[in-house]
Amino acid sequence: MRPETTSRLLKSEDDAMMVGGEEKGTEEHGNGRSHTVVGSSWGRPIYTDTPAVAPWSQPSPCPTPQWPRAPVPLSAPRGRHYRIPPPFHLKPGLAVALLEGESPEGTIGAYFSLGNDRDIVLGLTCCHVASPGCATTGLTVAGAAANHEEIIAIGSGAYELGITAIAERIKTLQNIVVSQKKVIERLEQLLDDNNGDPAAIAKMKEKAQRRAEAATETMDALESLHRWITNRFALPEQRRIGRVYCAERIGPSSDDPVSAYTIDWAFVQLNQDAFKRPGFTGNQVYVGGKVTEEEYCGLMFPCVADRGDYEYPLDGLLQISGYVPESEMLNPTQHGPDGKPRMHVIKNGRTTGTTVGWLNGLKTLTGHYQIEGVKKEFKTMETTIVPYGGRWRDAFSASGDSGAAILDRDGRFVALLTGGGGMNGETDITFATPAYELLPRIRKAVPGADLFPEVPRK
Description:
about 25% strand, eight-stranded antiparallel sheet, Thrombin, subunit H, Peptidase_S1_PA, single chain, eight-stranded mixed sheet, 2 domains, Peptidase S1 domain-containing protein, 23 strands, alpha+beta, coiled coil, globular
C-alpha cells in the first residue's frame, strides 16, 4: 500500500509559539467567544467554540467518578460471556474531553508522576484534545492553573457509545439464556423418552446449564453496572477527573522537515480521590477485549522463534515500561511471521479499543500541516502505523483515539497517537510522535515528569 499524504488545518491570527507564548491563538467574536479551527488528520477540520479566557474561579464541588472494580472479570476463559465494554475504567486508554465547549474527544494514553511525588498524577494526551484553544500558542503550567479548563472522563459521544454497548451486551446475554434453556428442555425430553445415551445427554445438559448460569451472572452484573453509571454519572459535570496542567503548541519540532516530528501533547492533572485510591493500577493497559488470549500470542509473537519467553500479560494488563529507542525503531529486533525484522504494536484507545498493527518505519510519510494566519506552513516526517492485515485489516485507529499510547509487545512506549488518514473516510495510516523524541521534550517542559512507576499487583 502506498501511503497518501494528508493535511491537518488550523486557523489562527498569530504565529505558532512554544509553551510559554503569551499571544492568544484565537480570534475574538462579538459574542465574547473565541473561534478556533483545530486540525484533524481524520478528514474535515473540527471547528470548536471555546470561551474566552476568564479569571479562574473555584468550581462548584462535585465528586470525582469512582468507577467500581469490574463486577465481573476483565478477562475470562474462552467460551464465557464476560465482557465489560469500554470506556468505564481508569486505565490508560481512558476516554476524555473538555467539560466546557464542543471539543474533540480523545484518549489518555499514559500516566506520569512528578519526581518522587506520586500524589501528583498527570495524564498524557494530545493538545488538540485537552487544549484546542491554545493549539498555536501552547499553555504554561501557570497559565493552565489560571484558566482552569476542566476535563471529564468520557465525553458525551463515548458515554453514549459505552452505555449502548452495555445494553446491547445485556440483550445478547438474554438471548443466550433463552437459547440454552431451550436446549435444556430438549435434552430433558430426550431423557424422558429414553432416546439416546443417558450419560451423554446428562453431560450436554450440564454444559448447557453452566452456559446459562454464566450468562445470567454476567447479565446481572452488567445490569447493575448500567444502573450504577446512569444514576451517578449521566451528567458531564458528574464525570470531572481533573484539569489541563499544560500543553505545548501544535507544530513541527524544527524548521527542517527532514528531521522534524510533530508536537501535539498535553498533560491533564488528575484528581487524587480517583487516581490515588487503592484500585488505581497506574500504567497497566488492558490489551484484551477484541484480542483474546489465544490470539494475542499469534499477533504479537508471530515468529515462532521469538516465543521462547512468551507469557500472556497477567489479567490482560500490559505494563508500560520504558520506551523503544530510535535505533530499534529503525532496525527492529522483533520478527514477523516470515522471520524478517518487523515491530508489531498494540494500543487501547477511546474509539477502537484494543487494536494491533505494524510500525511502518520512521520517516516514511510526510505529513503536511497548514495554519492559516501563520507565516509558514510546516511539514514533518511522521512515524506511521499500518493495519495488521488478514482478519485484523480493520483500521488501527479512528477519531477519538488521539492521545493513546502505542506499545510494543514488551510494554515499551513506542509513540503517542496524534491522528490518521486514509481514503473514503477510513483510516489506512495512523500518525504518531515517537516516544524517544517526545519524552525528552516532556521532561524539559515539565521537570521531574516521568512515566508513573509500576504499581505492585495484589
